[in-house]
Amino acid sequence: MKALSVIILILSPILCIAQSAEELYTKALKSIENEDYKEAVSILTKAVEANSKYKEAYNQRGFSKNQLGDFYGAIGDYNIALEVDSTFADALVNRGEAKFNLGDDYGAMEDYDKAIKYDSKSARAYTNRGFAKYNLEDLQGAYFDFSKAIELDPNDADKYFNRAVVKAELEEYISAIDDYNKSISLDPSDPDAYNYLGVAQYNIGEVEKAIEGYNKSIEMDASDPVKFENRALAKSTLEDYEGALADYNKSIELFNEDPDTYNLRGVVKYNLENHEGAIEDYNMAVELDPYNPVYYDNRALSKMALEDYKGAIQDYSYSIELFPTDPETFHQRGLAKIQKGDKYDGCLDLNTAVELGSEEAKASVKEYCK
């Protein structure tokens, strides 16, 4: 009886410890559910102190650290969980996410590959691997992974959205539209889906439909400057320049540091023959990004319209410094020089444009350089 008593005394504390770790783990899951990740880390630390082989606890503590932005700490916890069980697919997926968050796409893919090896039904592993491939510009690989994720979980709107983005980048716009519509049917509350749908429709020439999508997206979320810029571009295509101007104004009101938006608004003002206003916008574009030759070309056009030939020549010269092989810029500078009265130098520019391949410059040479 004494021997039996000793055994009972030895086993009893172990059973208490195991039960305590499990209780702590359950409590921590509730904290995670409530997005109280700091509390979850604290509780799970106690759980692994009670049971140093508790792989699920390490995995969830890693998840909580990842949510708190402690990606290296998260990886450390996933490593311990995987030391306990190297086939623990969920920990592999989670470690891949932490590596992905650190910009280590290749390392993330290695973990996703292993996770799929041990759990071929993990839609999350395929989805995440798709994101890593997308970042590495392997669009076909991302397409495959997002398709596989949909096969495993066909009722998730985000998965169709992800695949649609890839299809659009592969210029498979009609198929992308199908996926965006499917995403919307599963979750009609996502404004980005309507916005991206509009972009795909715009790219196949369905401009009116695109505007409908942008309208819906803006109705749901009027805080995104890109949505207004997209709608403005569509309105410009339909020559609704006043409507486009209003949208560019709103886009700049929301975010005033994008040079392209100023440039595009300048183009609209040019089409409305507001050349002074256009030049003001091109000035802002150049101030924000002085290395884009398009901004100088556009500003030169407005200066030409105002008969500021000297200013136009200066802008075309800046553009040529940045992009010395554009025949159209030489062509336009040549015309500006001729308008200014400098026929000799103007014809030199026109001939350079011809040498660079401009057919239009050939006609100008015949007209001005006899």
From TrEMBL:
InterPro entries attached to this UniProt entry: TPR-like_helical_dom_sf (IPR011990), TPR_rpt (IPR019734), Ycf3 (IPR050498)
Map the TPR repeats onto residue numbers. Answer: 89-122, 123-156, 157-190, 191-224, 259-292
Q: Which SUPFAM superfamilies match?
A: Protein prenylyltransferase, TPR-like
One GO CC term of this entry?
cell outer membrane
**Keywords attached to this entry:** Repeat, Signal, TPR repeat
Q: Does the keyword Ligase apply?
A: no
Give the range the annotation lists for the signal sequence: 1-18
Q: Any keyword Isomerase?
A: no
Highest taxon listed in the record's lineage: Bacteria
Coiled-coil ranges from the UniProt annotation: none
Which Pfam family is an annotated match for this chain, by its short name?
A: TPR_8
| Gene Ontology annotations of biological process type | receptor-mediated virion attachment to host cell
List the PANTHER family.
TETRATRICOPEPTIDE REPEAT PROTEIN 6, UDP-N-ACETYLGLUCOSAMINE--PEPTIDE N-ACETYLGLUCOSAMINYLTRANSFERASE SPINDLY-RELATED
Protein name in the entry: Tetratricopeptide repeat protein
Which organism is this protein's natural source?
Fulvivirga marina
